[in-house]
């Protein structure tokens, strides 16, 4: 299963890796109801809604449960009609109403796959947790860290495709992105070690539409100041940044030759591997000292389980939303 965190950190729930989060996929806003379906051969839809008493009236006759509670007690109901069967779960938590539905065509009610999906929905509801307001920032930290790592993983699909297609400019841009990501992660982890904290500074890992951007050159400088990279690597990155911008902004209006692209990409890839090794040094140090992202007792080099791989494939699919890059998930 994989985690889904409400965009404001209001709740967390675990859903099957074979379920796709549909709101973004179909261009809907990330608000209730949050919808999930099988990636392929969908047979029904799971929808989850969570409203405060200021957004929707709450049934006063339903017992009130607490924030941060595991395995809430949900009221189960059926709402069949109009050609659809609806299985409903309902609960009140503090000043919030939580409601989930699994909806499928009535004509499929005897289909064994529907029964399987309903069993999954029952399991999903045991994982729902409405988070108290003072803990929601922590939930968002973990969510945005996870999405950062998934995006980094997804970038390798684009990188491999660029190599296959001999798309040199695309490859250059992707490698530059990966270097920036490695350094951002290394800076976050180095600060965790210095401050002896497990909290994640998501300002470096997530940039919303209205957030002030933290540009690459500033990342390079922070990494140098924290002694994550040497002066020599810093100088190479600074020069490559200038050369890359020349390609992006001045290829047509300058004397830049296409053959130079191959030289830039080769040097970028060489520097990228050096930076990745610098990140690994910080990862290993966190594991040794038991602090930060890798201080949980699991070595950074530990082989992933099949469940880990399935979860990553599912999350990468959610990142791409492109059929050509879809990865099959083992059941």
Can you describe what's shown?
This is Apea-like HEPN domain-containing protein. It comes from Sphingobacterium daejeonense. The protein has two domains: 2-131, Mog1/PsbP, alpha/beta/alpha sandwich (Protein Transport Mog1p, Chain A); 136-300, no CATH class. It has helices at residues 22-25, 112-125, 136-164, 168-195, 216-225, 231-250, 259-289, 306-320, and strands spanning 2-5, 11-15, 19-21, 34-38, 45-52, 64-65, 75-78, 84-93, 96-105, 129-130. The chain has eight helices and ten strands. It is globular, with a radius of gyration of 23 Å. The chain starts with a strand and ends in an 11-residue tail after the last helix. The chain is 46% helix and 16% strand. The strands form two sheets. Strands 3, 4, 5, 6, 7, 8 and 9 form a seven-stranded mixed beta sheet that branches. A three-stranded antiparallel beta sheet has the order 1-2-10. It is α+β, with helices and mostly antiparallel strands. Strand 1 and strand 2 form a beta hairpin.
